[in-house]
Amino acid sequence: MENPFSLAGKTILVSGASSGIGRQAAIEASKLGAKIVLTARNRQNLEETLSMLYGGGHSIIVADMSVSEQLEYLAAEVPQLDGFSCNAGIPASQLVNFYKEETIEQVFKVNTFSAMMLIKHLLKKKKLNKGASVVLTSSAGNVFCAALANGIYGASKCALDGFMRTAALELAPRGIRCNSVNPSVVITEFQKKSGITPEQYERELKNYPLGRYGTPQDVAWGICYLLSDASSFITGTALKIDGGSTL
């Protein structure tokens, strides 16, 4: 019996694959049979992710998503793709009174502009096959609910979701789908760098009806679903993976 959740025979590009959600998405997609192309700026960390993958035929392309020329290089180097899981991102936790223009520019460059421009380059080089699926890792914060000191990061993700919906509309005639996953707090090294204290984590946990924070695997399973044929009639959708915290 055919399994619509299988990724066998699909080649998937995973950005931000050196750690956290990106690494876990690559691992889970490989378990489901996909051939994975890993990308991030740190080769050593990518090699570590590569060693964790199941199956064979996987590869690494080192590229810095904040550098425009490397985005075009990445698009030129990747093989034909059936999916793209975009996870590159940097944190920012600042109150409005302390904003710096350079912080805003850097966060948007990595969290928003890099995804937009890489998808543009992939399309121009005809690297996304008909029926391909693009999954952008966004956030529940500021997309579905506001949070203190989350204005810069949250705005970058709101912009990413806005782009996702337009891309879904424009790419539908090519049979290419575009969706996002929108997690709330997920405990990763990325999250630990956000500046949130253990006491804040403890207080925030009371807002989670399921009684726990998310894991990279929780989000990775959502990504794999949207990459698979089981979601073939879903596009332009932001999938909340938030433990009920935005109810």
Structural account:
Helix content is 40%, strand content 17%. Strands 3-2-1-4-5-6-7 form a seven-stranded parallel beta sheet, sandwiched between helices. β1, α1 and β2 form a beta-alpha-beta unit. The protein has helices spanning 20-31, 43-52, 68-77, 101-124, 151-171, 189-192, 198-204, 216-227, and strands at 11-15, 35-40, 59-62, 81-86, 128-137, 177-183, 238-241. It is α/β, with parallel strands linked by helices and 247 residues long. α1 packs across α8 (216-227), α3 runs parallel beside α4 (101-124) and α4 packs parallel to α5.
Measured distance between first and last alpha carbons = 37 Å
Strand-pairing-aware structural class = alpha/beta
Number of strands: 7
* Beta-strand content estimate: 15-25%
Task: Give the low-confidence spans.
Answer: none
Q: What is the helix tally? A: 8
* Succession of helices and strands: EHEHEHEHEHEHHHE
Radius of gyration: 17 Å
